[in-house]
Amino acid sequence: MTTPPPPRALLYVSGLVVVAAVIMGVLGALRTGISWDEPYHVMRLRNYLDHGWFALDWSVDSGATTSGDTNTLVYGPVAMLLLHGLGALLGTEGWGSVATSPAAYDVRHLGVLLIALVGTAAAAGITRVLLDSWRWGLVTAATLLALPMWTGHAMFNIKDVPVATGYTLMTLALVTMVQRSRGTPWLRIGGLAAGITLMVGTRPAMASAVLTAFVVVAVGAWVGRRSHRVHPVAAEAVAGLTTAAVVLLVAYPKVFAQPWLLLSSAEQSASFRDGRDASYGYVPFHVLAQVPLLLQALFAVGLVRAVSFVVRRWRTETSHATRLALVGVQVCALPIVAMARNSDLYNGLRQLLFASPAWAVLATLGLAQGLVWAHERGRVRVVGGVTLVALVVPMVDQAVLFPYQYTYYNVALDATGQQVQSDYWRTSVPELLPDLPTDGQIVCGPTRSSTLGSLAGSDEAAGTDPTALVAGRYSSDSSVDCRLDPLGPLASPWAAEGLPLDDALPHDEFYALIDRGHDLPANCTRLAEVTRNRHGREVDMTYVARCRLDPPPLDEEVTFVRPAGENLTPGLWAYAPVGWVMRESVDAIDSAGSTASLTFVASPACAATGCALVLDADAPDDLVARVDDAPAEISVVAGSVDVRLPAGTSATWVAFERTSGEPLGLRVRSIRVVPSGTG
């Protein structure tokens, strides 16, 4: 195809967009906080270094390393190993240990940004091959970086950015292999191996993308076998694939030495949320709402152009058609499968982030086609002006949202006033940190429910006024104080700044750090917030509130049981307000910290003579308890703990610790209150 060179103004603007995006990326990587997934991947890497399983603690400890509910096979260690190596080289952690200091997380963020920039360069390289112009490659780089979702996630997303970059490197390598051009074969083979290793080594289920791409290459080679030699293409592709397979086998033999586990990984990825968020309209809605409008138009033109060329010239210009098909497959294949299967996607388009680089390539082709049309009709200034606006306006939006560009929705969505989630990732916590109180428990991302205990978003809570929902003292599966929780966003900066761990609040009060723009719960009062302005709307990223929650009555035995694959209900969590997790068992809560508390309202019958709190539990011999801040008599025997409650007991707070000061190691299956003298 003959394509005119990009106008000089477009090149200047593209260069400025790239520079601005890189600057924002570096500053944002150092400013954003610890996102949801990062501490979990730190835990996985520690277990990988210790045991060879890139798995969570409760998966390794239970021995169920490949069971469906442990999410073990969904992720591979390659991206984290690269980031770990960068941290070791820069001195933020040792080669055999994984650090959790703010500096260590900053280095990982910068490493993710470097990976994203490699993916950006690979997308530019694809355009250079398709249009035989590095100038158009620069436009592709600018188009990709103008996507707020891409630049926003480039600052921290340790899962989806490496997959996207790996996929793009694979596509670039295959595009160059289809019709051998200048350059050494080892560069093409190395690029293919690196792309597959990074992509599949981060998400093993992405092996399906490798298979799809190789099918396209094989079909193209078969159709064009008379016009060019097939064997060199096949040899290079097989060499790259084999190299990647060997590297993956060495890096993670516990999975990649057992190919059938790759099928399990695909199934685990597809069923992670058990279908509770599945919707056929999910992908189309978020594409229309999360992508800048003018860039959508350019992409549509490019997609139509590419599909038309492939359909009309597959046999006559097979090499170029195959190249376009590879780009189209990266954009469309897996998203179409996800829509057809009604897959359970969430948190916008970030799980489809791997399509963004190829999307930028097609948007560039659309722009090039627009310029061809403009030259033919004398409308170069009009098309050029629209293009400049298409690149500049999203960058202005990014500057306004910085560094939370991943919360972007376009002006069309914001004009409707529809409520959408904002800071799912909680990276705005450092900005809120100076305003967080230090005198009591903080719950990060508290689970909200109706007064009847129905979780927000569930069918049972449908129709409930969002402002009537109640914030619980737990986040998903933990009531550990977020100031101490290694899996939360606060523990690392809290310790680094030496902030106090005071506990001066009344027992029935706590602080809640609420993300995603959720409405203020009915039992809370807002104290401070982090906001941004998006198209005239003030958007909450995170805010902190002071909340109060009455203890529940304990009139009969309460058993801590949850259905497999689900979380403990709000009604049961109400009894376990501080220091508990429910991850390693489906019929008990555990406390691995130094303290933990239970709370409840005792039966009126206890008021006169006192009662005993009886725990069906496994506990250490040196366990001690305090009832309403006073030392209490306690008896620990095999499988049971008995705590004496004094006469007059009503609303009660029972706190546990060990005389040795060691972690509790307390597992509680049930609690009940009995009259004094009985058991």
Topology diagram in text:
Elements: H1 8-31, H2 37-51, H3 57-62, H4 78-90, H5 102-131, H6 134-145, H7 148-153, H8 160-178, H9 185-202, H10 207-223, H11 231-251, H12 253-256, H13 260-270, H14 282-290, H15 293-313, H16 318-340, H17 356-377, H18 380-401, H19 411-416, H20 429-432, E1 442-444, E2 448-449, E3 470-471, H21 491-496, E4 509-515, E5 524-534, E6 537-548, E7 558-559, H22 570-573, E8 589-591, E9 596-601, H23 606-609, E10 611-618, E11 623-627, E12 630-632, E13 634-637, E14 640-645, E15 651-658, E16 666-675
Parallel strand pairs: 1-4
Antiparallel strand pairs: 2-3, 4-6, 5-6, 7-16, 8-16, 9-15, 10-14, 10-16, 11-12, 11-15, 13-14
**How much is the radius of gyration in Å?**
28 Å
Largest sheet: 6 strands, antiparallel
Shape: elongated
Q: What percent strand?
A: 5-15%
Low-confidence stretches: 62-69
Report how far apart the termini are.
Answer: 86 Å
- Tally of separate helices: 23
Structural class: alpha+beta
**Secondary structure: helix percent:** 40-55%
Average pLDDT number: 90
Q: Count the E strands.
A: 16
